[in-house]
Design a protein that fits this description.
Structural class: alpha+beta
Cofactor: (R)-lipoate
Oligomer: single chain
Shape: elongated
GO biological process, one term: L-lysine catabolic process to acetyl-CoA via saccharopine
CATH class of the largest domain: Alpha Beta
Enzyme class: transferase
Strand content: 25-35%
Helix content: 25-40%
CATH topology of the largest domain: Chloramphenicol Acetyltransferase
Function: E2 component of the 2-oxoglutarate dehydrogenase (OGDH) complex which catalyzes the second step in the conversion of 2-oxoglutarate to succinyl-CoA and CO(2).
GO molecular function: dihydrolipoyllysine-residue succinyltransferase activity
CATH architecture of the largest domain: 2-Layer Sandwich
Length: 501
């Protein structure tokens, strides 16, 4: 009896993924929930656990293959079948060389990059011309708009020519290199036999999965500090987590001291570093500029006295934490205030679709969050129907996932309005950029004590500047100002939120 391993649900509107890394090979024994492989979508990496214990009898979708939702990835046979593939494993390594006796040249082509992706940039070559390569050994890495794609060798042999050098932009059907198969391929297994100690920990050209590399970087560890349990000793994300839990630490900072700067009098070019933008950063830049070019974006400002919100929070924060198990922050007040204002000014919660305006009778609130890899915007669905406690719990949960890089595609889609809190970084005033196709985004800022005239007297109050950027194509100035005034009123008298005023 065998069990099928299929592509899991990838998230809203995501229909396909690329098989990035297999951690197991045919014949390996697997346990329930043990990680078998990693899939890459446009924005996130998805791990595929084993649905049953047994032996990985067949891999249907190889590394680099593009697969759809629910596509068959592999087959797992029950326990009794386990010994049979194991007996064949030692004979598999030299097989490709023996089979390739024709002396032919094999082209290494750009693999399938994904729907609507037409080009990529060659970021790294792991082999040089003249190097022996084994079948499925990683030759190079390509960068697309959002993900990195590893290119394996289609056959064993010698890398006779590199056609696309590092930094070259190639289209989806381009040739990357040429492998000379045949008699020369017999030399490929030799280095491994001559130096088994070097390949025991990390075979030449082997790379860990993207999620594992990211986890290593975030933990400040090198792969030598982690015992890999994946195929050929590859490190998985769970291996990194286990090493961190065991108290692993990285002595790297002392060993990687930056090289001394060139003398001040030296040529200026010698004291500069030019680094090519990653395709991800290029895409972010393009999307932000497209937002400015497409929407008639305008920003209106106001300020809010945070005295009442701060007093209410200080009075009830201990009881709130005791009852709900989550801290009472400012974001739930702002989320509630925005939901009330959006009900009164629905065009700020709408979007343009061609020549139509789509009004939303719900609020899916995007909460911008900074992470080590950049800004992400997890979405809290139906925030207008949630309590203060539910909102705080959702923000805490999504924030933790964002910091750990565990947000799914589905959790970052479908937002109708966004709140961005630059105040946590000390920003006093800014003009946030719209997150298309949304028509509004609220910018929060630093709370700062300022002298204010209250009832003819000068008093010190904790003040915050608010900024609303909006699409002037569907939101008039009156609507934008009304929205911001309603947010201000709700925050300066939080009782209005309780009475829906």
């Amino acid at each position: 009896m065998s069990t099928e391993v299929r592509v899991p649900t990838l998230g809203e509107s995501v229909t396909e993924a690329t098989v990035a890394t297999w951690f197991k090979k045919p014949g390996d024994s697997v346990a329930v929930d043990e990680m078998l492989c990693e899939l890459e979508t446009d924005k996130v990496t998805v791990e595929v656990p084993s649905p049953a214990a047994g032996t990985l009898s067949e891999i249907v979708a190889a590394e680099g293959d593009t697969v759809g939702v629910d596509a068959l990835l592999a087959q797992i046979s029950d326990g009794a079948a386990a010994p049979e593939p194991k007996a064949e494993t030692p004979a598999q390594a030299p097989a490709p060389a023996a089979a390739s006796g024709g002396g032919e040249n094999i082209d290494v082509m750009v693999p399938t990059l994904g729907e609507s992706v037409t080009e990529a940039t060659v970021s790294s070559w792991f082999k040089a011309a003249g190097d022996a390569v084994a079948q499925d050994e990683i030759l190079c890495e390509l960068e697309t708009d959002k993900v990195s794609v590893e290119v394996p060798a289609p056959a064993a042999g010698v890398l006779s020519e590199i056609v696309a050098a590092e930094g070259t932009t190639v289209d989806a059907s381009a040739k990357l290199a040429v492998i000379a198969a045949g008699a020369a391929a017999a030399a490929a297994p030799a280095p491994a036999a001559a130096a088994p100690a070097a390949t025991a920990s990390a075979p030449a050209g082997m790379k860990d999965g993207p999620a594992a590399e990211k986890a290593l970087a975030e933990a400040g560890m090198t792969r030598d500090q982690v015992a890999g349990t994946g195929r050929d000793g590859r490190v998985t994300k769970s291996d990194v987590a286990a090493a961190v839990a065991a108290g692993g630490s990285a002595p790297a900072p002392a060993a990687t001291a930056p090289a001394p700067r060139a003398p001040v009098a030296a040529d200026q070019a010698a004291r500069e570093e030019r680094v090519k933008m990653t395709r991800l950063r290029q895409t972010i830049a393009k999307r932000l500029k497209d937002s400015q070019n497409t929407a008639a974006m305008l920003t209106t400002y106001n300020e809010v006295d945070m005295t009442e919100v701060m007093a209410l929070r200080n009075e009830y924060k201990d009881l709130f934490l005791k009852k709900h198990g989550v801290k009472l922050g400012f974001m739930s007040f702002f989320t509630k205030a925005c939901c009330h204002a959006l009900n009164e000014v629905p065009e700020v919660n709408a979007e343009i679709d061609g020549t139509d305006i789509v009004y939303k009778s719900y609020v899916n609130m995007g909460i911008a969050a900074g992470t080590p890899t950049g800004l992400v915007v997890p979405v809290i669905n139906d925030a207008d129907a949630m309590s203060f406690a539910a909102i705080e719990k959702a923000i805490a949960e999504k924030g933790a996932k964002a910091r750990d890089g565990k947000l799914s595609m589905e959790e970052m889609q479908g937002g109708t309005f966004t709140i961005s809190n630059g105040g946590v970084y000390g920003s006093l005033m800014s003009s946030p950029i719209l997150n298309p196709p949304q028509s509004g985004i609220l910018g929060m800022h630093k709370i700062q004590d300022r002298p204010m005239a209250i009832n003819g007297e000068v008093v010190i109050r904790p003040m915050m500047y608010l900024a609303l950027s909006y699409d002037h194509r569907i939101v008039d100035g009156k609507g934008a100002v009304t929205f911001l005034v309603r947010v201000k009123e709700a925050l300066e008298d939080p009782r209005r939120l309780l009475m829906d005023l």
